[in-house]
Amino acid sequence: MTLKEKLRSGRILIGFEISYTDLCIAEMASRQGFDFLWLDMEHAPSNHETILSEIIACSSGSAASVVRVPWNEPYVAKRILEMGPDGIIFPMVNTAAEAKVAMDSCMYPPYGKRGFGPRRASNYLIDDLNTYIEEISDKLCRFIQIEHVEAVRELDDILKVDYLDGIIVGPCDLSGSVGLLNDIYNPIVIELIDEIV
After folding, report:
1. Burial class (CB in 10 A: 0-12, 13-18, 19+), 44
2. pLDDT tens digit string along 5-36?
3. What percent of the chain clears pLDDT 90, i.e. is strictly above it?
4. What is residue 163's predicted lDDT score, i.e. its pLDDT?
């Protein structure tokens, strides 16, 4: 069952964040029954080669690979998507326009603006490329992080953006956006999280 199918089933999924650069950690974690591994590029020292190794390590077990890119930049997303992760996370998305940029970078024309060059994602160009193009939109999980009060105010419009599969709350940055950095249990922050949920 793919990560997308698990998400659609409505069951609770359990993941594990990898923020170190030793691919053996990703390989070991992928064999422990997690539904997904969150491979971090935003706050971790991981580079593209590290992430590629971790995506490959995930495939040795049952965990799907989900990469959090360092920022909502289409060229960054493109390089990650060519590696063939199961999902991608865009941090600090605050508006519907920013969410659309993120989704456009994941979708091939005419649905988006993703450039074509899947390497590992298409089994190193061994798989039929037309089949890959046809199927990837429905297989790839696309997430954004809501971690600023501005995003909470814009959430209704953000959620209307096509191809968005889910949102992830970033409580620490959310608390910072209201002048309460790291006070994630403050009633003001909890109220914002409740509003998001």
Report:
1. middle
2. 999 999 999 999 999 999 999 999 999 999 99
3. 100
4. 98
Reported for 189-197, long-range contacts at CB under 8 A and 24+ positions apart, including other chains, are: 192/149, 192/152, 193/169, 195/152, 195/155, 196/146, 196/152, 196/155, 196/167, 196/169, 197/169
Tell me: the pLDDT tens digits for 127-138? 999 999 999 999
Judge whether 43 counts as a catalytic residue: yes
In the chain, the DSSP E strands lie at 15-18, 36-40, 64-68, 87-90, 141-146, 166-169
Q: Kindly list the distances between the CA atom of residue 88 and the CA atoms of 5, 51, 121, 189, 190, in Å, as whole numbers in the listed order.
A: 16, 12, 13, 26, 26
Per the structure block, which two tokens stand in for 150? Answer: 């501005």
- Annotated catalytic residue: which of 43, 48, 119, 160? 43
